[in-house]
Design a protein that fits this description.
single chain; alpha+beta; Jelly Rolls
């Protein structure tokens, strides 16, 4: 009997090893190919989702992870409806956010006028923010001799010269030419004051106007945009101060007359 046991021992050992191998294979196959494998694959996708930096990719992978695990809940002996409902809800939320992100990342297309205005005055602002802001603007054409702003008139619009020639007439009748891209009535407008000078068009031109009340409401919830606009105003003011100082210096030295010479009859 002892001899038979010794002879059978190697065979029994090999059989147990084969059985263990079969069990391990069945376990691994079930965890990868079976319904339980959906849980593992879903969590691997979630792991990849939380490893990426891009928000759009994160949400797309999250939707895929949620979708992979839905059959696991459905094909149980008793369908698990609460987890299916919540996973579907998460998928819907992520899908909505994916659509919104895709819309936000669309290329910004500007018209010729908008592109010109952006290039000469607002290039420091993100194009998408500028597109939203310029939708509030009114495009106004002016003719030679037209008064754009009258001295003492309350300023209700922020105005930017797009094209043409406009000049500001100072108190001593000296004149400062405004170039395309410069703001008209900017400092006075933000200070709530009336226009301290007349602004007159010297020839045909185009202006962009924003109602100040609407512009303030628009920038109230956009502090970054408001800060950028204040930088634009500050830069424009420094250019105007330089131009005014040049005109005053020329006037003081007699290089330009305070009044245009009378025409000879």
């Amino acid at each position: 009997m002892g001899r038979a046991a010794k002879l059978a021992a190697p065979w029994l050992g090999g059989a147990s090893e084969d059985a263990l191998g079969v069990l391990m294979y069945a376990f691994v196959a079930d965890q990868i190919l079976g319904i339980n494998g959906l849980v593992n694959i879903s969590n691997i996708v979630f792991l990849a989702a939380f490893s990426v930096r891009d928000v759009l990719r994160l949400r797309l992978l999250s939707i895929a992870g949620e979708a992979l695990i839905l059959p696991y809940y459905y094909f149980q002996n008793e369908t698990l409806w609460p987890p299916i409902f919540w996973r579907a809800a998460f998928m819907i939320v992520n899908a909505v956010r994916v659509v919104m992100i895709a819309l936000e990342r669309r290329p910004v297309v500007l018209s010729d006028k908008e592109e010109q205005l952006y290039r000469i005055a607002f290039s420091s602002i993100a194009r998408r923010e500028f597109l939203k802001m310029v939708s509030l603007a009114r495009w106004v054409d002016c003719s030679a001799g037209e008064v754009v702003l009258e001295k003492g008139q309350p300023i209700s619009d922020a105005i930017v010269l797009i094209s043409g020639e406009v000049e500001a007439i100072l108190g001593n009748k000296s004149r400062v030419a405004l170039r395309p891209g410069q703001l008209i009535g900017d400092v006075s407008a933000y200070s709530g004051l009336a226009s301290p000078m007349d602004v007159v068009a010297r020839g045909p031109g185009t202006l962009a106007k924003w109602d100040l009340r609407h512009l303030r409401e628009f920038t109230a919830s956009r502090p970054d945009l408001r800060a950028k606009l204040l930088q634009v105003v500050s830069l424009d003011l420094s250019v105007k101060l330089r131009d005014v100082a040049t005109v005053v210096a020329d006037f003081a030295t007699g290089k330009i007359p305070s009044e245009p010479p009378p025409s000879s009859a």
